Amino acid sequence: MINEVAARFRQQAEASEAAAAAACVIEVAHMELAEPTIEQAFDKCVAAGAKAVVLHPFFLSPGRHVSSDIPELLAAAASRHPGVKWKVSEPLGLAPLMPQLMNDAVAAALQEPEWQGGQAVAAAEGQPSVAAS
């Protein structure tokens, strides 16, 4: 899934004049258990000409990985490339558009004819009811 998300992000970045002007490089990286690693992706960005690297964690919340593990791995990768700036962006769950994305997903689900379990309960018109855990 992460590769598909990155491909869509690349398409959007290529269509953006600001990204094109900044010579945006987008690489996928994994924190652990898979490749490319953060170090490998950082190296690829620098090899492609990046002078600054922003790692966007594909996480919903700012837990230990986002606040500690990922910055440590990114700092280690950056230490091999003096002069290249780097930072970690906020996780997806803190994005200002997240509530709208959630609303869109719930609205789309309400339009689908297939339901699980008992009968579907109609929400007040235009006001879907959502429970999240």
From TrEMBL:
InterPro entries: CbiX-like, Sirohydro_Cobaltochel/CbiX
A GO molecular function held by the record: metal ion binding
Keywords from the UniProt entry: Lyase, Metal-binding
Pfam families named in the record: CbiX
Name assigned to this protein: CbiX-domain-containing protein
Keyword Zinc attached: no
Organism: Tribonema minus
Signal peptide span: none
PANTHER family xref list: SIROHYDROCHLORIN FERROCHELATASE, CHLOROPLASTIC
